């Protein structure tokens, strides 16, 4: 494991990708930045973070990919984060499909994984994560929360990153057991929730996920799979 600290960058995902192209970069090399101007989130959104207060980082994954799918890697990363938060920080959290980490139903972290293929073969992935750590006020983000909000404590960013990398390494090496835990940590699993499906408001029960990463929702006795573009949470 190697950790690289940057004072500022446009995107840690882009920075790590550039370093991988230019030189040999080890599995689980991580780059974190105190300031990130173009951090990306899901659905093309941006990740906004107060400078120096939060952990915005990217991790290179080059090993343990054989036999996986992109969604299974997403599951492994998500479960690794949930278990790290619980075991090391005593913070309870859930996975809001497809890639948000919630605590007390508020967004604590977001995950964005970008995969690289060569001649049809999965070569490596860059796991980008934004974790709210020491920021206390989220003026324009009413559903955001931080570790400081939850625990009342200040944290050293690099120490948190190192802790998470150990959990991620373990999860990748024990991927079958890790993936099996996903539904246990899935937000509102087996519960009714309000959704917007193809721009229509509905009430449906979260039934699980498919192998390809679609969300399974049960409505009027029928279970249907939805992809990211079709469904939004309303809560």
TrEMBL record:
Alphabetical list of Gene3D superfamilies matching this protein: Bira Bifunctional Protein, Domain 2 (3.30.930.10)
Signal peptide: none
Record keyword NAD present: no
EC number, as in UniProt: 6.3.4.15
UniProt keyword annotation of Ligase present: yes
GO molecular function, one term: biotin--[biotin carboxyl-carrier protein] ligase activity
Protein name per its UniProtKB record: Biotin-protein ligase
Organism whose genome encodes this protein: Nonlabens ulvanivorans
């Amino acid at each position: 494991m190697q950790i690289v600290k940057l004072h500022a960058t446009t995107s840690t995902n882009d920075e790590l990708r550039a370093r991988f192209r230019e030189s040999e970069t080890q599995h689980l090399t991580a780059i974190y930045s105190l300031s990130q101007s173009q951090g990306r989130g899901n659905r093309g959104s941006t990740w906004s973070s107060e400078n120096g207060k939060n952990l915005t980082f990217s991790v290179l994954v080059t090993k343990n990919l054989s036999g996986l799918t992109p969604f299974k890697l997403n599951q492994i990363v998500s479960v690794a984060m949930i278990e790290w938060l619980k075991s090391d920080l005593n913070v309870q959290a859930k996975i809001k499909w497809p890639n948000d980490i919630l605590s007390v139903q508020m967004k604590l972290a977001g995950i964005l994984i970008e995969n690289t293929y060569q001649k049809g073969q999965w070569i490596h992935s860059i796991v980008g994560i934004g974790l709210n750590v020491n920021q206390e006020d989220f003026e324009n983000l009413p559903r955001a929360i931080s570790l400081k909000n939850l625990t009342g404590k200040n944290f050293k960013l690099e120490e948190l990153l190192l802790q998470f990398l150990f959990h991620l390494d373990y999860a990748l090496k024990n991927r079958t057991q890790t993936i099996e835990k996903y539904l246990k940590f899935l937000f509102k699993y087996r519960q009714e929730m309000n959704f917007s499906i193809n721009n229509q408001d509905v009430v449906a029960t979260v039934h699980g996920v498919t192998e390809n990463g679609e969300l399974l929702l049960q409505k009027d006795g029928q279970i249907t799979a939805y992809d990211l573009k079709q469904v939004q949470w309303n809560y």
